[in-house]
Design a protein that fits this description.
Blueprint (H helix, E strand, L loop, with lengths): L1 H17 L7 E4 L5 E6 L5 E8 L13 H8 L12 H7 L3 E6 L4 E8 L3 H13 L5 H20 L6 H9 L13 H6 L2 H11 L5 E7 L3 H12 L22 E7 L6 E9 L4 H14 L5 H9 L3 E9 L4 E10 L5 H17 L4 H18 L3 H13 L6 H10 L3 H11 L5 E8 L5
Helix pairs in contact: 1-13, 4-9, 10-16, 12-16, 13-15
């Protein structure tokens, strides 16, 4: 009876999610190469204006890391028509909110306003692109802001440098070997001209996408976009020729130390394909299967039943050129890192040798259906998805079709991908240790 109830619930859920509203959008290019995507939804009087630039940490000089993230802050300093410090006052004063974020692959700025302020949002983003003021006082100010962020998030935060150590050991040639925060000495050594050159190279209309989503009149917004963004000159096209990584064929063993922790961690990290490839989607499912909640395999086994781990998890750090699949665990009590590694590996071997159950497979499909719908439940989320799918995936239609990739993933696919990528000779094994254990 329980099985029948589960199956019925699954069918009802899938049926509901399968009819989720399609996201309608219109896209076009300005003469200067700026790609524009419009999504009209007049159900609530809000609008998101956003610009995503195809520039991230991977585009930096190895001796000047941290530039992309630095610009996330620097381009709020002011413009020729917005006095220094006023950018972040104008938005809340007009009932809006704003934010920005940077990854290894892109930088994203957005504002959410009442819909009658859409023109203000467009003007602000056009100012950031056309008239930024990059001077020494702004650089010095944001240098201190970034240093404080690094101290809080990385240097003084427990496990704050874990991912930093994963990246620098997993990637040897590719610029994914450093993280977005970069090295502070690189920022200190940079000249004002270097910052200006970086801006001129990457913050150009033909290296960006503008998304306006929400309660808009498309004809009016198109005219505003032409007025504010049309006069911006096209930049020299960005050409990337990034080094390729040789496959990992022998397990890489490394140690790192953190003075902010008392409990060590073991990390297994595998270099995996770009998030554009289907295998990357399969790995996302494997992460959910292994550590998605208290009923997941690793949590139930190592935290619940055997009580060997204080915490355990798996995640796919998805990136444009390569990705990193990371499994980690914090031992409980007298459990050694070696014993924890052995237990984690046993669960991966099970994935490689046996098909997961039909029940678990259906549960995964339901979870990803739900995640997909939730990602498009607000105009803010839709704007981010539209920008991301265009700039990084080269397919805006994924905002509606990506769920079909997950639906196509079979139990056999999960087994095959686990066999292909999650092997000891293809990984980094990192012991992340308290500082006092350093010899």
């Amino acid at each position: 009876m329980k099985k029948r109830l589960f199956s019925l619930a699954s069918l009802l859920l899938v049926g509901h999610l399968a009819t989720a509203q399609k996201v309608e959008f219109e896209e076009y290019d300005l003469d200067n190469g700026l790609h524009v995507i419009l999504h009209q939804d007049n159900t609530a009087p809000v609008v998101t204006t956003s610009v995503m630039y195809h520039v991230g940490a991977k585009d930096e000089n190895p001796e000047r890391t941290g530039f992309a993230h630095f610009f996330e802050h620097l381009l709020f300093e002011g413009t020729e028509n917005i006095e220094r410090g006023e950018f972040m006052k104008i938005i809340p004063a007009n009932g809006g909110k704003f934010n920005a974020n940077t990854t290894n692959d892109r930088t994203y700025y957005y504002e959410v306003f009442p819909s009658n302020k859409v023109e203000l949002g467009l003007w602000l983003e056009s100012e950031r692109l056309m008239h930024p003021v990059i001077n020494q006082i702004g650089v010095d100010t944001q240098n201190e802001v970034v240093k404080e962020e690094k101290r809080m998030r990385y240097d003084n935060s427990p496990y704050g440098s874990l991912i930093i150590n994963v990246q620098k050991n997993l990637f040897i040639k590719h610029p994914y070997r450093w993280t977005t925060i970069g090295e502070m000495e690189h920022l200190d050594a940079a000249t004002l001209q270097e910052f200006k050159d970086f801006n001129k190279k990457f913050y150009i209309p033909n290296n960006a996408v503008l998304v306006v989503a929400g309660d808009i009149d498309k004809a009016q917004v198109k005219k505003m976009i032409q007025d504010y963004f049309g006069p911006i000159p096209k930049g020299t096209p960005v050409v990337r020729d990034l080094p390729q990584e040789a496959p990992i064929t022998t397990e890489i063993k490394a140690k790192a130390y953190d003075g902010n922790i008392k409990i060590p961690a073991i990390v297994e990290a595998y270099r995996t394909p770009s998030y554009k490839e289907k295998d990357s989607y399969v790995l996302n499912m494997i992460s959910e299967y292994l550590s998605g909640g208290k009923s997941s395999k690793l949590y139930k086994k190592l935290v619940d039943e055997k009580k060997m781990a204080l915490q355990v998890g798996a995640m796919s750090m998805s990136l444009e050129d390569y990705s990193a699949y990371i499994v980690y665990g914090l031992p409980l009590g007298d459990t050694s890192l070696a014993d924890l590694t052995k237990e984690i590996d046993e669960e991966i071997v099970k994935l490689q040798t046996n098909l997961i159950s039909e029940r678990d497979h259906q549960k995964l499909l339901n979870q990803f259906e739900n995640n997909f719908v939730n990602s498009n439940s607000s105009v803010e989320g839709i704007a981010s998805s539209l920008a991301t799918y265009y700039l990084l995936y080269d397919d805006v239609n994924l905002i509606n079709d990506e769920i079909n990739i997950y639906r196509s993933i079979t139990r056999e696919d999960i087994q095959a991908v686990a066999k292909k990528y999650l092997n000891p000779n293809q990984r980094l094994l990192l012991e992340y240790l308290p500082e006092e254990k350093k010899q």
